[in-house]
């Protein structure tokens, strides 16, 4: 209270201690993004210009497809039991064909040992049953999208380095662009072993807080690609810092984004100011038909042929559509009042 909101970095330095890894960084990140929006609008310029300008005028977007059915309600749609029909190789393949036809140039699917059914994961060890199932899904996906189309997997393998290496070697022949979070991101040494043991690039980072939190992963080159989430990592400038730090060590960045168009546009501005190690920014709402409608002041659809154009409007370049936001509140939640 009483501070100048245009002193973004100074204010972030004062509040960063109130955030932490995982979703606990959300409040700090949201404030940081709002401060950049205020600064941009007060000066009449888009945020990317305040970050040093842009390397690119449009940002490649990769689509998180989940499985044979994409996520529409995060509270229920991750459930496997009772939804087994969406986890067959055939269901994955059909989803891949359908979503690729929307214009996306990279697709990512969730694929975990437990999707193979009972005793596919015993304790924290993936069994032969799990590996065979996972390979069958990857084979179906590769056939569905074609030999050269970029495919990624979000595939936690129970937590052991050995299980992750075994999985990685099993899917190496299929030319995946990355495999994500195959073990816990905190296990820097373990991730480094996995990365050095397989051919497929590794990725992690959605739960890491601030660029400082990424230092061990980056300095040890424990992964090939880092994935900060702008809504929890600390905001726009922290994502840019992570990109540049990763670039110094020859690593790539593919920011995680499982949020609203507000979060997406914050990502777009940060990504515009990132160096050439940017791969793509995630889109996690392909099954949410009203996602575009949550904001106004921008041409629709927001994602065109797998890209988002960097906006030239001041600040983030969008405004929240309060009417739509109110309409889609979760039961029991109130608007920002």
Helical content band: 25-40%
- Write down how many β-strands occur, each being a DSSP E stretch of 2 or more residues: 13
CATH class: Alpha Beta
Question: What distance separates the N and C termini?
Answer: 18 Å
What summary fits the major beta sheet? Answer: 9 strands, mixed
CATH superfamily: Enolase-like C-terminal domain
Written overview of the protein:
By secondary structure, this protein is of the alpha/beta class. It has one domain (8-327): TIM Barrel. The protein is 36% helix and 12% strand. The chain has eleven helices and 13 strands. It has helices at 8-15, 26-43, 47-50, 89-100, 128-145, 161-171, 188-197, 210-219, 236-248, 261-272, 322-327; strands spanning 58-66, 107-110, 121-122, 125-126, 151-154, 178-180, 202-204, 225-226, 252-253, 281-283, 295-296, 307-309, 319-320. Strands 1, 2, 5, 6, 7, 8, 9, 10 and 12 form a nine-stranded mixed sheet that branches. Helix 8 runs parallel beside helix 9 (236-248) and helix 9 (236-248) crosses helix 10 (261-272). The longest helix is centred in the N-terminal third of the chain and has 18 residues, at 26-43. The radius of gyration is 20 Å and the shape is globular. 48% of the residues are buried.
């Amino acid at each position: 209270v009483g501070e100048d909101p245009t002193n973004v970095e100074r204010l972030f330095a004062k509040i960063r201690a109130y955030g932490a890894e995982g979703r606990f960084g959300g409040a700090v990140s949201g404030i940081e993004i709002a401060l950049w929006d205020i600064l941009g609008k007060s000066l009449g310029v888009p945020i990317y210009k305040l970050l040093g300008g842009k390397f690119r005028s449009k940002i490649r977007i990769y689509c998180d497809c989940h499985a044979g059915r994409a996520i529409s309600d995060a509270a229920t749609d991750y459930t496997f039991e009772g939804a087994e029909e969406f986890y067959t190789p055939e269901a994955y393949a059909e989803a891949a064909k359908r979503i690729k036809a929307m214009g996306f140039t990279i697709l990512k699917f969730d694929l975990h040992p437990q999707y193979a059914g009972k005793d596919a994961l015993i304790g924290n060890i993936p069994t032969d049953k799990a590996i065979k199932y996972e390979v069958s899904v990857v084979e179906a996906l590769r056939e569905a999208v074609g030999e050269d189309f970029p495919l990624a997997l979000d595939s936690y393998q129970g937590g052991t380095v050995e299980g992750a290496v075994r999985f990685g070697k099993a899917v190496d022949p299929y030319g995946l662009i990355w495999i994500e979070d195959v073990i816990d991101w905190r296990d820097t040494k373990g991730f480094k072993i996995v990365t050095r043991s397989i051919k497929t690039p590794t990725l992690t980072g959605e739960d890491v807080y601030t660029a400082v939190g990424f230092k061990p992963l980056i300095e040890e080159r424990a992964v090939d690609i880092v994935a900060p989430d702008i809504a929890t990592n600390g905001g726009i400038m922290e994502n840019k810092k992570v990109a540049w730090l990763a670039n110094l060590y020859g690593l790539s960045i593919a920011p995680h984004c499982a949020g609203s168009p507000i979060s997406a546009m914050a990502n777009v501005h940060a990504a515009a100011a990132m160096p050439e190690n940017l791969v793509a920014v995630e889109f996690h709402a392909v099954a949410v038909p009203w996602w575009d409608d949550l904001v106004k002041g921008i041409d629709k659809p927001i994602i065109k042929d797998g890209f988002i154009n960097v906006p030239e409007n001041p600040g983030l370049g969008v405004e929240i559509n309060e009417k739509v936001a109110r309409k889609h509140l979760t039961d029991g939640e109130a608007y920002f009042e």
